[in-house]
Amino acid sequence: MANLTDHQLMSVAESTYGTAVAVSRAVPFLPDSKAEWDPTPYQGKGLWVGAPGGVFRSDRRGAGIGQGTITEKYEAVSKGLGVALNAAFGTSTHTLTTGTTYQQVFTPTATGTVLPSRTVQLAIVDNAGTARPETFAGVTVDELELELPEGPDSIATWTLTSDAKTMLTATALGTWTPAASASLFGGWSTTSVVTLGGTITPPTTTVLASSSGSVVTDLMSLTFSLKNNIDSSRWGLGTRGQPTVGRRELSLKWSQEFTAQTVRDLQISQGKTSLLVTLTTGEALSTGFATLQLAFPAVFIDTGALPDPTDGETVKGDVSASLLWDGTLQPAYLVTRTADAAL
User: Fold this and answer.
1) How far apart are CA 264 and CA 259, in angstroms?
2) Among 209, 225, 246, 276, which one is least packed by beta carbons within 10 Å?
3) pLDDT for 218
4) What stretch of H or E contains 88?
């Protein structure tokens, strides 16, 4: 019998969109994850003589094709998230560097007009101690967010918001087997490094990204957002087509102490800058340590770099920035160094 904290969230990549696959990838998830199913019901609205108050008849209602929405929230861990991140970005590489150390590189490009799909299973334990699995197929990521919260004890978190084609309630419960000894990426641990400005040298399949810019130590929080702008309204006769990916929107928000005028001047001039964020954990790999890296070659400041006055508190700006394509490099690179032997 399960406890009321034994809910589980698992996923797996699909080879055919909308064809459910037995879930196999387990990652500890946060309890504000959720799933919803809209049965898109149809209701006859014809006038019916004698209907009390004109209320519609119950025998003229039925379930339509339906549509699911899923929100997954995970702490940023060193293992197990490759399938989900690939589904959000669209393109990835997974390469053995040395020994048992692998490097994964994710970029926001899609093969054709659609993104990789997944099967996702959310199992909620009822109050009698039985896990009740809900299995969603044809799951397509619409939005991805990475938040690095403010504070010395903060933990980086991923949020994925997705569309689902179908929901099944009779699928067997997946076996919960998370990756062993996965480590957590702290939001701003002593091993976090942020580099602003300069030129980004993009990652290769085996080498991390680098920057010629200057290390900054006054960023207080940072959020990266990727919006895929999928078209999930491809309704057809008796079905719904696979969502197509739209124009990608990539952005950053960060809070920064007002100790220099660099970012303010970039907002005024609309000059291009770059940002490189590197997080590591104490998890030793065969080479180096578990690493999470974000590289943005073309950053443009939109708002927030002109801070408001305070009543004696530390002055800071809440900056919003757009991530654009410079004509050569990707607008964003997500890189992980991991012991995961598979994506």
Assistant:
1) 11
2) 246
3) 92
4) helix 82-89
